[in-house]
Amino acid sequence: MMTIKSKTEGYPRYAPGTHVSGRDISNKNVTYSWWEPEVQYSWSLGPAYGRFLQELKKGKIIGRSCKKCERVIVPPRMFCEYCYRSTDEWIYLKDTGKVETFSISYLDPNARRIKEPILIGVISIDGASPMHGFMHYFNDMKPEDLKIGMKVKAVWKSEKERTGSITDIKYFKPMNEGDK
Amino acid sequence: MNRVAVIGGGMTLFRRRLLETGKELSFLAAKMAMEDSGIEKKDLDMVVMGSAPDAFDGIHMKGENLLDGAAATNKPYVRLFNGGGTGVFAPIAGWWHVASGVADTVLVVCEEKMSSCFPHPQTAFQHIWDPILDRPLHPNLVWLFAMEMNRYMTMHNIKKEDIALVAVKNKRNAVGHPSAQLPDEKITVEDVLNSEIMAWPVQRLDISPPSDGASALILCSEDRAKQYTDDPIFIDGVGWNIDSTMWTNRDLYFPRYVANAAKMAYKMADIHDPKKEIDFAEPYDPFDYKELHHLEGLLLCDKGEAPILTREGVTQRDGKLPVCPSGGLLGVGNPIAATMGQKVCELYWQLSGKAGKRQIPTDPQVGVGQAWGDIMQMGTVIVMRRG
Ligand SMILES: [Zn+2]
User: Cα(A91) to centroid of ligand 1, in Å?
Assistant: First the structure.
């Protein structure tokens, strides 16, 4: 532990506070209290995401149209946030699309390091408006082959494995000639 | 509207972990700002607290927990947050208390204690993702910025070397700052480019560190300011704007919500040509590319031009447009809301010529500060002016 009141010319003239290092904790130089919350949540999906996930279970991607701004929106919602009106129709989209951006992650959700990188990105879905899509994984490719603008296709779980979740799509893979 | 002055500022040490509680940190920063300005608790009409997600502290509605440390007992008090945007939004809220005439003197305190959360503050960030579509993919928050950075780099064909220059500049600028967590006089572009890859294109030295800390400001009306100082600094423009939550339906290469917020603030401050009229800037720099992205959003250069200005030295402390003279989040640290210390307190210190070793040599008269928050969607902007 180190209390610092280093003075400098200029402002702030000093910076009060007591720095605690990792070693201070492991050596128990400081006392602390500990709490592990136990809580669960059940989120209702609403009509838009509910239908979207039901369709994923069937192996299909569905969007909603807004006739005013002429967007085909995915993920679908029951209202257009720009026009501020109810959206109009359900529209089936393709299960192919384009990589709009991506990352090659060596971090797990808790910022712990992982050896095999996760390929993640945003895919705009064919049949929806430009730049309209969702985040998902990529696979069946080397990290260095992943590029913005690349055409990709969904790889689905088997019908039996699907649960009505975004993970009913396992990942997106590079689109080959002959893929539809 | 009443013109609003800044008459005092304060900041604690910023470190990965501080012994003091959030309340105690709030007290230390607020007390410094009050001593700096000659204001006592009885002089304060109202208090504004800024603090980002409750999930860091594990204390739900932590505004109530923090208020005693912020001189707010038995006073009108509000706690607000919009993620990373809070450090500029809290003083904007302080501004509207005074500008509206409901208060003459207001204390703004920003506090963050990220170290309480285990195994890492990133764990708390899991709670900000969309629960239905994003969380089943087990995302890490750094993914968002990696994807935005990649889009920005690709659209403008920007090299990582040019982005790394921002981390180098800001960590060097932080050397004169007593709060600074990661000042580094000797850091080079190679150090940044050779640092560990977190989520490509983001490497370890592209990122500001999580921190504990607090900062504070005293705002008051122009008349009141004359009782305390001959050289008040004024908040002449504020702006804030938010884009759709549906970030996978937007092109991330340009932060149009920051541009909207900047236009609002410039209009209020009667600034017609920000490129010419703004003397220096403190854009939000939790990642090095964000400084560039935000300079473009703040309309201080054209789209894709910020890396060129950086390469040419324009944004150095002695350049034509000094950027992050405080050392920014990259050098001083990133206790989310408490970065008001770099983004707004620094404007006050620079404009009043009090920044010591960090002082911009060219006698700046107008500065802009900016923060960015929620899920790549919130822009908060403040324009401050001398005399
Ligand atoms: Zn519409």
Answer: 15
